[in-house]
Amino acid sequence: MSEKITEKVHLLIIGSGPAGYTAAIYAARANMKPVLYQGIQPGGQLTITTEVENYPGYPDGIQGPEMMVNFEKQAVRMGADIRYGMATKVDFSSQPYKVEIDEENWIEADAVIISTGASAKWLGLESEQRLNGFGVSACAVCDGFFFRGKEVAIVGAGDTAAEEALYLAKLCTHVHMIVRRDTMRASKVMQDRVIKTPNITIYWNSETEEILGEHKVEGVRIKNVITNNTQDVAIGGFFVAIGHKPNSDIFKDFIDMDETGYIKTIPGTSKTNLEGVFAAGDVQDKNYRQAVTAAGSGCMAALDAERYLSTKQ
Ligand code: NDP
Q: Taking 60 as the threshold, does the pLDDT of residue 229 lie above it?
């Protein structure tokens, strides 16, 4: 690689969700002079949710985008250097580590925290995009509460879909679960629970043709792919649970990952296979994926980075 280095920083944080900002707050307070690049969606996934009611410290709840503005303000107040820009390539083959920003400048860093998050996968329907945030959601734990006492639909058949269908069944009058094959990918125990829950109806061999509603979700058109029959079902909320994709592509030549691209960390730490490179938040967590767990792991990454950098001086 022919990298033209334009800057050298002590600690580089890539990504601006709860993990990245929390790492920046801790690192700035510890005088590590962190530089954080926000990526294409400053604030991360929380900026596309509405109200957050399960983040401790906000007794009346808070809007997701507002919460992320607060995270950013706190990081800035502590002295973190927050910049708009996207990490587009890395060269971790030798130290100091090198990161390309916006396909232009290369920055060198003594330590790097990867907190690039994950992105929910979507079906790709026009109605899904149009009604996103108006009844369409990719997170039942975040948004299910707003549909209590209503009928909802969920698409997907993995462990997440099964877990979220069960979660929704406790809040909602009925859950319509749309499964594209005649079998579910979810673990047997989760499938059994779903099948035995009286207020969950499974639509096998079915796909979502359209989410109905002009300004908010009012129904879903479900198509059976064997018979080609369609039916409209009245619902107030539509949940997509067809998996997440960790935003880890640019690191794959250097950082150990599982087969789906989640970065592997040494259990109980934020350490990756490379010394001085740490990972926090959803990019290394396929299980919990909550703002509060991401923030906690961002704190861990900053503390791990601090210990690492202090041994190098
Ligand atoms: P998965 O990739 O396991 O499952 C995705 C599901 O979505 C599959 O059933 C798939 O169908 C379906 N799907 C994908 N694309 C479409 C589409 N375009 N239209 C309709 N359906 C679609 O993702 P999960 O998020 O469920 O799980 C990710 C990982 O996390 C897994 O390893 C899982 O076991 C784990 N996990 C574990 C939990 C636990 O142990 N408590 C909880 C949550 C997740 P198909 O089967 O036909 O491909």
A: yes
Across the strands, what pairs with 97?
109
Which stretch of DSSP H or E encloses residue 64? helix 64-77
Nearest 5°: the CA angle 48, 50, 56 is 110
Q: Is 154 in the pocket of ligand 1 (CB under 6 A)?
A: no
Query: Cα(first)–Cα(last) distance of the chain, in Å?
Result: 28
The CATH number assigned to the domain holding 26 equals 3.50.50.60
Q: Whose CA is nearest to atom 7 of ligand 1?
A: 242
96 within ligand 1 shell (Cβ under 6 A): no
pLDDT tens digits for range 188-208 = 999 999 999 999 999 999 999
160 lines ligand 1 (CB under 6 A): yes
Residue 49 main-chain phi, psi, to 5 deg: -100, 170
User: For the purposes of burial, counting CB atoms within 10 Å of the CB of 130, is it exposed (0-12), middle (13-18) or buried (19 or more)?
Assistant: middle
Structure tokens at 256: 């150990």
| Rama region for 44: left / alpha / beta (φ>0; ψ in -120 to 50; rest) | left
Give 19's contacts (C-beta < 8 A, 6+ positions apart).
Answer: 115, 117, 280, 281, 282, 283, 294, 295, 297, 298, 301
- H-assigned helices in 120-253: 126-130, 140-143, 159-171, 188-196
62 and 104 together in one domain: yes
- Are residues 213 and 161 located together in one domain of the fold? yes
Instruction: Please indicate, yes or no, whether the overall pTM of this predicted structure exceeds 0.85.
Output: no
The verdict on whether 172 is a catalytic residue reads no
